[in-house]
Amino acid sequence: MFGDIMGMMGKLKETQEKVKATKERLNTILIDEKSSDGQLKITLTANREIKSIEIDDTLLQDKEQLQDYLVLTLNKAIEKATAVHEAELAAVAKEGMPNIPGMDSLFK
After folding, report:
1. Between 84 and 1, where is the model more confident?
2. For the chain, what is the radius of gyration of the CA atoms?
3. Between 20 and 30 A from 99 (CA), which of 23, 32, 69, 73?
4. Which residues does 66 contact at the CB level (< 8 Å), separation at least 6?
5. How far apart are CA 39 and CA 37, in angstroms?
6. What CATH number does the domain containing 88 carry?
7. pLDDT value at position 50?
8. Model pTM?
9. Structural domain for 70, as ranges
10. What gap in Å lies between CA 66 and CA 39, rounded to an integer?
């Protein structure tokens, strides 16, 4: 009984270390998103940290259009980054979970 508990505790610690390493690796995965006409480009990490914003000079003439482009493009980039982030962490979490019937459906 105690061997099982100790084994599970070891597996939990190993999974926690893998999650931490995965989060660090997600800082190196870059997500690029462009506006539909290519006048705005956003780059962020899979941890959803903005790395760069490139704005075409023509957008600087229209404040409202620039604001709209920023909102739309940032939201699309964040959505993509979140999908990558969640998929990567779910894979690590699933790998570290004990085989409990019915639990596998939580990580799909």
Report:
1. 84
2. 20
3. 23
4. 40, 55, 59, 60
5. 6
6. 3.30.1310.10
7. 97
8. 0.73
9. 2-107
10. 9
Report d(CA 86, CA 46) in Å as an integer: 9
**39 φ/ψ angles, rounded to the nearest 5 degrees:** -80, -15
Half-sphere exposure of 22 (CA within 13 A, CB side): 17
Provide the pLDDT confidence category of residue 8 given band limits of 50, 70 and 90.
low
Strands 30-34 and 40-45, bridge-based pairing: antiparallel
- Please classify residue 22 by burial: count the beta carbons closer than 10 Å to its beta carbon, then call 0-12 exposed, 13-18 middle and 19+ buried: middle
pLDDT tens, position by position, 26-82:
999 999 999 999 999 999 999 999 999 999 999 999 999 999 999 999 999 999 999
What is the C-alpha to C-alpha distance for residues 88 and 43, in angstroms, rounded to an integer?
A: 19
Give residue 28's identity as a one-letter amino acid code.
Answer: T
Q: Which of 53, 58, 61 is nearest to 34 (CA)?
A: 53
